[in-house]
Amino acid sequence: MCLILNPDVLYLTYSKKRLALEAESDKFLVIDNRGLGYRVKFLLKNFKSDGISQVITYGGERLFEDLPGSAAQKKKWAAARDRAYYGSAMHFYRSLYTDKLKQEGFEVRQLTRYPNPARPEDYIIRQKINMYRSIGRPDSANYWIDIANSSKYVNERLAQIPWYSFEILKATADPGIYAISFLVICM
After folding, report:
1. Contact, 187 vs 112, CB < 8 A?
2. Rounded Cα gap, residues 3 and 11, in angstroms
3. Helix, strand, or coil here: 84?
4. Which of 20, 21, 68, 109, by CA, is between 20 and 30 Å from 49?
5. Total-model pTM
6. What DSSP state is assigned to residue 139?
């Protein structure tokens, strides 16, 4: 449903040693989202996909433009946009800001996780994988990849009572800018 119109503006770098894919661009990436009826112009500031932690981070500035279409197509796009919005991060943040979490179908609860003492730190796992790959020991590298894919936690506990918006949303010194704040408990 999405088509990158100018993929040549992306510069990709992959590091086998760190199992990381990074991307950068000094021009707007232009993407047609035909499923939602948008053309997105995205100025990528950073992108990283970490193969060990399985975390993808990215940031940038975006500009949305409506694609041209018939009245029937625009009606389909409006319905698809609603499906994409409800339950999204943007929907959650707006519900939090307007103090309508429960009415909009959201709950925020405290999650307590207990770390797995048998699982080494990510940097140690990454070192072992790289070392065994470099000396041609795929079985040992696969052993450490399995450890990397194992749970970081041995137990989790979810609080029964959800938080209210005022307990986690805090105004900052900048007008119109808010912070989400909550207590992190490490066991």
Report:
1. yes
2. 17
3. helix
4. 109
5. 0.66
6. H
Q: What is the identity of the amino acid at 121? A: E
CB 62 within 8 A of CB 31: no
Q: What angle do CA 142, 186, 145 make, to 5 degrees?
A: 5
**How many CB atoms within 10 Å of residue 10?**
14
Element at 21 (helix H, strand E): strand 20-24
How many helices (DSSP H) and strands (DSSP E) are in the chain? 5, 10
- For the record, the structure tokens of 31 come out as 């993407």
Q: Are 1 and 34 in contact (CB under 8 A)?
A: yes
Continuous segment of H or E residues that includes residue 13: strand 11-15
pLDDT tens digit sequence for 119-166: 999 999 999 999 999 999 999 999 999 999 988 999 989 999 999 999
